[in-house]
Amino acid sequence: MTELPASSEIQSAPAPRPWYVSALLAVVAVALLLGAAWLFARVRSPFPFYGTAYSGNTAAAGFSGTDQDGRPYAFVPGQGDKVTALFFGFTHCPNICPLTLAYLDKVKAALPEDERERFQTVLVSVDPARDSPERLKEYVEYFGKATGVRVPEPALAGVARDYGVGYQRVEVKGADYQMNHTTATYLIDSAGRLRVLWDYTQLPQVDRVVADVRQVLETSP
Fold first, then answer.
1. Of the four, 13, 56, 61, 67, which is 20 to 30 A from 159 by CA?
2. Is 132 annotated as a binding residue?
3. 181 assigned ligand-binding residue
4. Can you give the pTM of this predicted structure?
5. What percent of the chain clears pLDDT 70, i.e. is strictly above it?
């Protein structure tokens, strides 16, 4: 038979924590986590950008190719005091690329006239096999005002890698092929730095995109 301890040595189990206390602690923990994330974002970029802000002095990559007028084209980030919205697409794109051009054109139109001249859009084709300068010209002038650039392979792969862009040819049964590609737009300031990235789904909020662009225009060297 096991000997029981004296009554003075018996310890009672702690009372269970009420459910509402556990719930409150969970809410506090989530609030602290969100607060820490917000603080990190503000330290990295004090301005509350709508898009995703880059940290530090992240340099944008330059590249060369042929523009929509068939002329040699060299993209030197920040050259000419320009702020650039750069994205990768192709002229056979059924929806995302033409809408991106249209939204960025609306952004430019919404800028004050003096700032409008410093903002440009550049489309780099991920389908150089089909996107001739003539086709690029027709495309960018139909959907907006942008510079269309054809970069041949294998140079295109290097440019895409510099910007973290992926693209892939996809065969379509009974039709011509399509291209899967990253749909982000990169905002580059007049010092040649990557400042903001917008996902395609953010571009319809034109006013918020305009606010990001104006902040970069005002804080560029």
1. 56
2. no
3. yes
4. 0.79
5. 79
